[in-house]
Write a structure and sequence with these properties.
Layout: E1 2-6, E2 10-15, E3 18-21, H1 37-43, H2 45-58, E4 62-63, E5 69-70, E6 79-81, H3 87-101, E7 117-118, E8 124-125, E9 131-133, E10 141-143, E11 145-151, E12 167-174, E13 177-178, H4 184-187, E14 194-202, E15 213-218, E16 221-227, H5 235-245, E17 253-255, E18 263-264, E19 270-275, E20 279-287
Parallel strand pairs: 6-17, 8-14, 9-20
Antiparallel strand pairs: 1-2, 1-5, 1-14, 2-3, 3-4, 6-7, 10-13, 10-18, 11-12, 11-17, 12-14, 15-16, 15-19, 19-20
Bound molecules: manganese (II) ion.
Length: 304
């Protein structure tokens, strides 16, 4: 099943380029704030599924292209991300760090596979939203082509053999990143820096998440292409590692890490991300206002 959020926190099922509105079946109405209707739907999916399937059979849809799609999940308890999760991206980051920060910076662990980090959930944006670049003179802002894993059944200390049973579904995810030595969480947490979409494809429709082709284009030029079989930490290991530290909740999101081919975005670009068997979305890149702070400006506190 393909589950989309659209037109102001409504939820629908995507079926053959049609969208069937099932908002009336949600355990939490679309008007509720914070917007957690999809998360509640994920948490109660087994119980709600028969009514949703019935609605899909009986109701008439509208063309998918006629609605404004939103990120399928907002306000997750956690947005977890794995860094440098393909060997060749680790290598390209060593070259980039040596060129921009000097060769002595390479061994500092900037490109490591030693665990995961968190991004601000408020950095999540949807398939109809632009990527808004902050005003950071001299800084490169890169695209990272990734996949979102949505947690279905929560838990802690999840054994590897059970990890896949905790997956609700998948979507495309771009981990937008300001390059630099400032704290990673800050550089990756600007609003609109985690586009996710176009909708959730439930796990039963993706036979092997460790064998998916991903591609990312910028303004018609293909910058990234990879297969998830080349992940250093594969999908079950990502779930098990995260759950060894923190309780996973329904609707939590894991960004799997990027392959090689990351590169700068500029205002006016158009970014397309495709995961074959999952979906595709195309996003404009625009210039935003502001976004700099003392961390980017020499680290000296200023007076008001
Ligand atoms: Mn990343």
């Amino acid at each position: 099943m393909k589950l989309a959020r659209f037109n102001g926190n409504r939820v629908g099922v995507v079926n053959d380029q049609q969208l069937i509105d099932i908002s009336d079946l949600l355990p939490v109405p679309p008007e509720f704030w914070p917007p957690v209707s999809m998360i509640k739907l994920i948490a109660q999916f087994d119980e709600l599924k028969p009514r949703i399937q019935q609605a899909v059979k009986e109701r008439k849809g509208v063309p998918l292209a006629s609605v404004r799609l939103e990120s399928p999940v907002v306000w997750p308890n956690k947005l977890i991300a794995y860094p440098a999760n393909y060997a060749r991206h680790g290598e390209e980051m060593k070259v980039f760090i040596a060129a921009t920060q000097g060769p002595q910076a390479v061994s500092s662990g900037a490109a490591n596979t030693l665990g995961f980090f968190l991004k601000a959930p408020s950095s999540i944006s949807g398939p109809a939203d632009p990527i808004v670049l902050p005003e950071l003179p001299g800084k490169q802002i890169h695209h990272e082509c990734e996949m979102a894993i949505f947690i279905g059944k929560g838990g802690r200390h999840i054994p590897l053999a059970e990890a896949k049973s905790h997956i609700f579904g998948y979507a495309c995810l771009v981990d937008v990143t300001v390059r630099g030595q400032q704290e990673r969480v800050m550089r990756k947490s600007y609003d609109s820096f985690t586009p996710i979409g176009p909708y959730i494809v439930t796990a039963d429709e993706v036979p092997d998440p460790d064998n998916l082709d991903l591609e990312l284009w910028v303004s018609g030029e293909r910058r990234q292409k990879a297969n998830t079989r080349d992940l250093i930490v594969n999908v079950p290991n990502m779930i098990s590692m995260a759950a060894s530290v923190t309780t996973l909740y329904p609707g939590d999101i894991i960004a799997i890490g990027t392959p090689e081919g990351v590169g700068p975005l500029k205002a006016g670009d158009e970014l397309t991300i495709t995961i074959h068997g999952v979906g595709s979305m195309t996003l404009p890149v625009v210039a935003g206002k502001g976004g700099s702070n003392m961390a980017f400006e020499g680290g000296k506190a200023k007076s008001a």
